[in-house]
Amino acid sequence: MNLTVIDANFAAPDHTHVTGEGALPSAFDVTGLAAASVAAAGNAVARLCGRLGAGTPPVAVDRALASAWFGLSFTPTGWELPPVWDSIAGDYPCADGWIRLHTNAPHHRAAALAVLGLPADVERGRVAQALASWPGERLEATVVAANGCAAVMRTRDEWLAHPQGAALAAEPLVHWGPERRVPPFGRHDAGTRRRGSVTRAQPAVVSAALPAAAVPAAAVPAAARPLAGVRVLDLTRVIAGPVATRFLALYGAEVLRIDPPDWNEPGLEAEMTLGKRCARLDVKTPEGLARLKVLLAGADIFIHGYRADALDRLGLSDAALAERHPALVSVALDAYGWTGPWAQRRGFDSLVQMSCGIAHAGMEHFGRERPFPLPVQALDHATGYLTAAAAIDAWRERLDGTVRNARLSLARTAMDLMRTGPSRVSGGLPPPEALASEPEYTAWGPGLRLAPAVVVDGVPACTAVEARGYGSADASWSGGS
User: Fold this and answer.
1) Following DSSP, what letter does each residue of 83-96 receive, concatenated?
2) Does residue 326 lie within any of the structural domains?
């Protein structure tokens, strides 16, 4: 799977009908990236439908809707979402340039403030004063060493000359692991699945986003509901991984998201929990880790955002999982890639944009005096859709008895984006209120959800599971296992 760049802009996959006008303003083809990555996920669904025996349906992508889904797909009606950003998160001048602090997680905020010697209730102005005298790379390294998250603004050339940039240039967009063979699924696996002595019937589906008549009456793995009955264990947070598992849920997968006991991101709950059951586990305790292992034994696809060393410490390395669960498809994503000196570094979309030269390129392109990032967190969202595509393609191969794991990263996606220039499509996008949307009820109240950006002919994207809070469900699969 690749994103095709033609004449410094993205091209949609073959046999994909692209509609919609306008583009997000950027130094790079962000709208093209949105359309291409969403199309990649949609085409993976179409290929799976073909494998299930109904032919490969055509795929259509709306550029404007794809761009809008790269922002927020859900708009509350009569209530407001909490702020997404922590009060001291953001870009600051330092002694020799600019640095960004990512402090949304309490422990990342605490780490940055400890380095700066500031109290927990400090105001933003005081943080700016403390940062002003620090050399950027020294501060970045010190915050990262303290288990915090920070990134100096580099130029594109500086990044390409950096050891991590050089390592990423040699990585594929999707890194596929070695194949292993397992028994293929047979016809008897279509409606029920047997795991040891437990037979699992597929639950019924009623659409939460589409009229009931438009949705298949039962969740059996067929072209109209190609991921029905597929269990996806989701150990991802923030945006990229949750985007991937939300997409899988809309095509029938049973997604169980697991968060630590203290993890909260209220500004994104309504956005990222659609279609999922969300539970909490403390995997640092023997009981929590034991429960996670039970869930892994019942999963078909495992999607996680853990660094390799973190899984190793839990005894859940790729090698260990392949030995215990040879039929399990595992898809991993991280911030800075899987090789090079930063392979274990924590990171987020906004930090990667600073590191790799995107924020600097935006500053120059628009003539600004401070870092100017992309108009949306496009690295997160694009990597999320590419992760969904990889998971679906891996599952399709799993049906025929081949298992391959996949790895992706935000920084590697950024490398493809930085090969482009501004979109060749003129004009801005229509305002969100002018785009097609549908009423939706969440645990917090009603709102409007954007219509799907990709349409796979004859395959509705819908779910019966409303968006709910983290920890709102038990850590178990349907049927109690």
Assistant:
1) PSS-TT-EEEEETT
2) yes
If you write DSSP's letter for every residue of 42-65 in order, what string do you get? HHHHHHHHIIIII----EEEEHHH
The neighbour count for residue 348, using CB atoms within 10 Å, is 23
CA atoms in the 13 A half-sphere facing the CB of 37: 33
458, 216 contact by CB (below 8 A): no
Cβ(405)–Cβ(177) under 8 Å?
yes
CA–CA gap between residue 109 and residue 149 (Å, rounded): 8
> What three-state secondary structure class fits 152?
strand
pLDDT of residue 106: 95
Measured CA to CA, the distance from residue 111 to residue 349 in angstroms comes to: 19
DSSP label of 27: S
Which residues, other chains included, contact 34 with Cβ-Cβ below 8 Å and sequence gap of 6+? 24, 63, 66, 67, 69, 70, 376, 378, 381, 382, 453
Q: How far apart are the first and last CA of the chain?
A: 34
- Read off the DSSP letter of residue 51: I
Number of structural domains, the chain? 1
**Low-confidence stretches of the chain (pLDDT beneath 50):** 187-188, 190-219
Domain extent at residue 383: 4-82+170-340+374-456
Question: What is the token pair recorded at 252?
Answer: 């029938």
Residue 144 lies in a domain: no
Contact in structure between 29 and 422 (CB atoms under 8 Å): yes
**Burial (CB count <10 Å: 0-12, 13-18, 19+), residue 328:** buried
Domain presence at residue 364: no
Q: Which residues contact 290 (CB under 8 A, 6 or more apart)?
A: none
Q: Could you tell me if 33 and 419 are in contact, meaning their C-beta atoms sit under 8 angstroms apart?
A: no
**What does the pLDDT read at residue 433?**
82
53: burial class by Cβ within 10 Å (0-12, 13-18, 19+)?
Answer: exposed
Q: Give the CATH number for residue 398.
A: 3.40.50.10540
β-bridge partners, 276: 255
Residue 66's alpha-carbon distances to 51, 311, 381, 436, 452, in angstroms, are 26, 33, 10, 12, 8
Residue 110 has phi, psi (to 5 degrees) of -60, -40
Q: Is the pTM of this model over 0.85?
A: yes
Residue 198 confidence (pLDDT):
30
Compute the distance between CA of residue 217 and CA of residue 207 in angstroms, rounded to an integer.
10
Structure tokens at 128: 């700016």
Which pLDDT belongs to residue 221? 61
Position 66 in a domain: yes
